[in-house]
Amino acid sequence: MPKIGFIAISGVRCNDEELLALGLNLPGFVERSQVIASLPSLGLLTLAGMTRDFNEGQAAQNVYEMSYVEVPELKDFDDSLHQFDLVAISSFSAKIKDAYTLAQRFRARETFVIMGGLHVSTQSPEALEFADSVILGEAEIHWHQFLADFVANQTKPVYDCRGTSFDLANATMPAFELLDISRYNRLTVQTQRGCPWKCGFCASTILLNPLFRNKPVEKVVAEIKRIKEIWPKPFIEFADDNTFVDKEYGKELMRALIPLEIKWFTETDISVADDDELLALMKRSGCAQILIGLESPRKEILFAVNNWKQSRYDTYIENIQRIQSYGITVNGCFILGLEHTDHNYFEQVFQFIREANLFEVQITVMTAFPGTPLYDSLLKQNRLIEPKAWERCTLFDINFLPNNMTVKELRDGMIDLGKRVY
């Protein structure tokens, strides 16, 4: 019976020591680092669920024995305590070098390693230096084939799922049963993939497949009911790119959530304020907060993000107030270092936050993630500080040269704004 380990590389995502120290004293940063560390990998749990389904049609000797393992800090992880025939490793760009190191350790013990996820899908030649196989794009498409190939000792180096869209109507139940639920303060459920706005900096599922799709409401409800079997009163984070792009689907989902009596959080865009019926249903269904990427307090700067967000700017404050009038707090996200911003920008962000009366604020620095149009553009302009310093892809560590200020001015402005906001 082959043993497979699903290994998630997680942990706090900031390398700048001063910013990290600042974060330890400021609620906004502390909450963010704790939440990231406490979220399991939904991608790996989904593949584990598919492995469970694969097992049902196999002879006893070909059934996979599964484990899910979190690695918050590689220096504290003793991989020799985990004996697997096969490991599936996933991580985000900021921790991918730790993932590569761990992959090498397992391969040294003749454990087969397959890697996937956003970073690997955009940097497959790099990943293949450390893994036996990589799976690119939406892994559900070829996961069963890979499992069969592994049993038959006929694996391929690349399983390329790009160019094909996975139908979320066929989504499997994630293997939530593998989790030690006491380790988490929220669990993730996905209701859709994709976003129509395609911001140039965005490193989300659009890099795996650009097609926007909804998951059938009954499948979302089934996943939440499964979670409630192990956590009676869960806090759910919808792991979506933009939950309420489709307003009618959103209303159908909200009505289905009301009887479940859960609390939940998600990310969406400002257009959710256009529909009072939807906002009322969101509140009734247990919405605690929504994160909205406002990005900038200056309309002319938003053209570098996308035209749609620029077109919404004049109603930003009115829309924020409407959403919060329903008892749903808005976590307004602002990006520092956007093109054509200067040292005056930090004060403008602060004044907008005060004027809008936001209940929560997230400030990040513009980050060039691999595979994004922003990364490609800055690379061509020779404005990436170290093109493959993936550890800087944290949303807090600066990895590019701003065009209207120095790196030091951007960093100092972020620290000062953080102190004032939090």
Provide tags for this entry.
single chain; 422 residues; alpha/beta; 6-stranded parallel β-sheet; 15 helices; 17% strand; globular
What's the helix and strand layout?
Layout: E1 3-9, H1 17-23, H2 27-37, H3 42-55, E2 65-71, E3 86-90, H4 96-108, E4 112-116, H5 118-122, H6 124-127, E5 133-136, H7 143-151, E6 158-160, E7 187-189, E8 192-193, E9 213-214, H8 217-230, E10 235-238, H9 247-257, E11 263-268, H10 276-284, E12 287-295, H11 307-312, H12 316-325, E13 329-336, H13 345-356, E14 360-365, H14 373-380, H15 407-421
Parallel strand pairs: 1-2, 1-3, 3-4, 4-5, 5-6, 7-10, 10-11, 11-12, 12-13, 13-14
Antiparallel strand pairs: 8-9
Helix pairs in contact: 8-9, 9-10, 13-15
Question: How does this model look, in words?
Answer:
By secondary structure, the chain is α/β, with parallel strands linked by helices. Helix content is 35%, strand content 17%. The chain is built from 15 helices and 14 strands. The protein has helices spanning 17-23, 27-37, 42-55, 96-108, 118-122, 124-127, 143-151, 217-230, 247-257, 276-284, 307-312, 316-325, 345-356, 373-380, 407-421, and strands at residues 3-9, 65-71, 86-90, 112-116, 133-136, 158-160, 187-189, 192-193, 213-214, 235-238, 263-268, 287-295, 329-336, 360-365. It has a six-stranded parallel beta sheet with strand order 2-1-3-4-5-6, with helices on both faces. A six-stranded parallel beta sheet has the order 7-10-11-12-13-14. Helix 7 (143-151) links the parallel strand 5 and strand 6 (158-160). It is globular and about 65 Å long.
